[in-house]
Amino acid sequence: MTVGTRHRGDERRALGSRVIASCVAVVIALSGCTTAGPPVPRATRAASADDLVIEFRQNRDQVASDAAIVRIGNGGDHDITIVGLELSGSAFTAPTVRDRSSTIRAGQTTDLAVELPPIDCDARDGDVQVDLQLRLDDGSVLTASELSDPTNALQRIHTATCTVAAVQRIAEVAAVPGIRLEGAGATTVAVLTISVVPTGAPGRLLLVALRSTVLLQPAPSDIGGAPPEAWPLSLTVDPASGPQSIELRIVPTRCDPHALAEDKVGTLFPLVVRIDDGPETVMTLPLGAGTAEALKDAVRARCA
User: Fold this and answer.
1) Which pLDDT score, from 0 to 100, does residue 226 have?
2) What is the distance of C-alpha 221 from the center of its chain?
């Protein structure tokens, strides 16, 4: 991966280094970065010989949003101030810009939340990468390509986004707003309906299964035994299909006191699909905020 530094008034001159392939993070060497003219602010000037370690990540509470994290570690003895950030790369169709000032304290690591650029679904999963440009408060610009992605967040984001686009081309798949309740108190079961409406576009879509979450799972069956970890669907959609729906009976996976208080992904159901003769892939079932809250209310009712 390649890193470099350029300065205001010298867009073509680059100072940087080639980072060896075994590195687990992007290391930007700022040595030799000085500018002519007015004195550089002390924090930036003092940090010019320090190294930055940069990673691309996504927090759990960002999974349902178009956001991610640029994690920047300042291994030097002085603070640095970033006044602008641009995220781009082969995974995206256009860059996204963050125009907010952030100071990275010496010896500390800071997460900068960024809006994700539009995903490029023409790029193959194995070829996607994230590139970064940072503007410092002294006017210098740092660039880094192929950011480290220790949790494989980019691959996951790209696959999930493009799977949704491919699925929705063939059919509109989503949870119907609201739920129906069966039973009461400790016997409460939430019934969620999935609606599947073909668009008429060519292609064949198979809904394989809906997986349970850390909060919600299939209701026990009448034959006893442990609840399964997924709802089998086995529903096929093509241009000749009519609208279809599936009802799912749902109970809590857990009832400990922290189950709802700390939940961030409990209503993000992984939907396993197959398009034409391709491999199985996973997308998040589209589900409205009101329906998600109704499911949590059902958990409260059963766990009370």
Assistant:
1) 66
2) 34
Give every CB contact of residue 241 below 8 A, 6+ residues apart in sequence. Answer: 171, 198
Question: Residue 74's closest CA among 55, 54, 57, 56?
Answer: 54
- d(CA 85, CA 97) in angstroms, rounded, equals 6
Q: Is 94 exposed, middle or buried (0-12, 13-18, 19+ CB in 10 A)?
A: exposed
pLDDT in tens, 256-285: 888 888 888 899 999 999 999 888 888 999
Q: Which two tokens stand for residue 221?
A: 């069956």
Side chain identity at residue 40, one-letter code: V
Residue pair 85/135 in contact by the 8 Å Cβ criterion: yes
CA neighbor of 57 nearest in space, from 140, 132, 122, 120: 132
What does the block give as tokens for 35?
Answer: 């500018």
**Paired strand residues for 26:** 54
Distance, in Å, from the CA atom of 97 to the CA atom of 70, rounded to the nearest integer, reads 12
Catalogue the E-assigned strands of the chain. 3-7, 10-15, 26-29, 51-57, 67-74, 80-88, 96-98, 102-104, 109-115, 131-136, 141-144, 171-175, 180-182, 189-198, 205-211, 216-218, 230-237, 244-252, 270-275, 280-284
| Mean pLDDT calculated for residue range 200-204 | 94
- Interval 82-101: pLDDT, tens: 999 999 999 999 999 999 99
